[in-house]
Specification:
Helix content is 64%, strand content 0%. With 148 residues, it is mainly alpha-helical. The longest helix is centred in the middle third of the chain and has 60 residues.
């Protein structure tokens, strides 16, 4: 369900996934690692592993975000700008032209179909509407006439 628009810039910066685009990416310790009752590590190992995981994840993500995210954003921005330009200035007008040009062809084809195919289909339907198929389980088995 769509969320309300943030009222100020601070709220906009806090909610970085307002449309829930990346809910499938679970990178919280509890969503990835869980020890069942029969296989438990010592408490100190569990806590140390949790801290190591969090620091490694945060540090690596921060490093990648600082080094690679801006160039990725630049490339993605240009890509989406080209996509929008192509859709707005090329594809939509071209499709509109095709739709206009084909309107008379469509009318002609529909008229021909109405004059030829529809009566033939109605005739076949009239013939086939009296066909009945009965299936009996107790029918005797017929032997094959051709036995190899």
């Amino acid at each position: 369900m769509p969320s309300a628009k943030p009222e100020n810039t601070q709220e906009a910066l806090e909610d970085r996934d307002p449309n829930n685009l990346n809910q499938h990416v679970q990178v919280v310790w509890d969503d990835i690692i869980g020890e069942p009752e029969g296989a438990r590590s010592p408490e100190c190992a569990w806590r140390l592993s949790t801290v190591c995981f969090q620091y490694a994840r945060n540090g690596c993500y921060t490093l990648l975000a600082v080094l690679i995210a801006p160039p990725c954003a630049l490339v993605l921005g240009c890509g989406f700008a080209c996509l929008a330009f192509e859709q707005i200035w090329c594809t939509a007008p071209c499709l509109r032209c095709v739709k206009i040009y084909c309107a008379s062809l469509r009318t002609m084809v529909m008229s021909c179909m109405a004059a030829t195919v529809v009566p033939a289909a109605e005739a076949v339907g009239h013939i086939c509407r009296h066909v009945r198929v009965n299936f009996r389980r107790d029918a005797p088995d017929e032997k094959d006439l051709l036995v190899v």
